[in-house]
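Try this one yourself first.
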């Protein structure tokens, strides 16, 4: 099976081409250029360097959220457009699943953290069971202190990764009451290679949709919508 994978859910943008046994090509940029600038040129280059024509791709895997609303929209529109044009299915890979799968060889609890602003993180927790990624704390948007407490109650050593580590590292070091560590720099951010590898597994489990059906998963409402609702509530008070 051959998969084209896209992850533009955070500051990092990443595109990869993979088959069942190999990551054939991958391009990742983390220099704060907008995804509208980087994603399509990277995609073109990844496909070109893989020497696999787009028509020979079997499915498109995409980091489906949560994450940056703008980034998710750009990545989802790209995946959806390609899927419709090529008549290929889309494999939605939850962003936190893709991040956690980067640490698939770790034996403890894997906790991805994505900065959700307003003192919150998008997060979940996982462990590996016979090579399978198992979710033990459901994905959610919560205060960093809340997820640290849940992890302490779960017990076991924790590996943190994701862009939320940069933002909340001091808080974790101050408040975490059990053993933990931070992923090294080459593992800490999103990677389309991880989305591709996990996407192939999910495809085999039947977790894919038509391009027409695909929708990103935002987890919470966009900031503009939340602010509008807050203004309406204050107006009624």
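Now uncover the answer:
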């Amino acid at each position: 099976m051959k998969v084209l994978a896209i992850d533009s859910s955070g500051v990092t943008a990443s595109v990869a081409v993979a088959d069942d046994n190999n990551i054939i090509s991958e391009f990742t940029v983390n220099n704060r250029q907008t995804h509208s600038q980087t994603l399509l040129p990277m995609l073109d280059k990844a496909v070109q360097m893989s020497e696999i024509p787009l028509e020979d791709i079997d499915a498109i895997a995409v980091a489906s959220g949560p994450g940056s609303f703008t980034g998710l929209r750009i990545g989802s529109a790209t995946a959806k457009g390609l899927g419709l044009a090529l008549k290929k299915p889309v494999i939605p890979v939850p962003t936190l699943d893709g991040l956690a799968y980067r640490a698939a060889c770790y034996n403890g609890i894997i906790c991805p953290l994505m900065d959700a602003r307003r003192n919150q993180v998008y997060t979940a927790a996982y462990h590996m069971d016979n090579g399978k990624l198992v979710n033990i704390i459901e994905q959610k948007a919560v205060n960093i202190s809340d997820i640290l407490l849940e992890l302490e109650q779960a017990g076991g050593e924790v590996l943190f990764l994701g862009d939320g580590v940069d933002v909340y590292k001091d808080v974790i070091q101050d408040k975490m009451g059990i053993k933990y560590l931070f992923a090294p720099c080459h593992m800490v951010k999103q990677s389309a290679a991880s989305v591709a590898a996990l996407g192939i597994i999910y495809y085999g489990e039947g977790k894919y949709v038509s391009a027409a059906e695909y929708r990103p998963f935002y987890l919470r409402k966009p900031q503009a919508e939340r602010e509008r609702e807050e203004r309406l509530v204050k107006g009624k008070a």
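Discussion: The longest strand covers residues 132-143. The chain has a mean pLDDT of 93.
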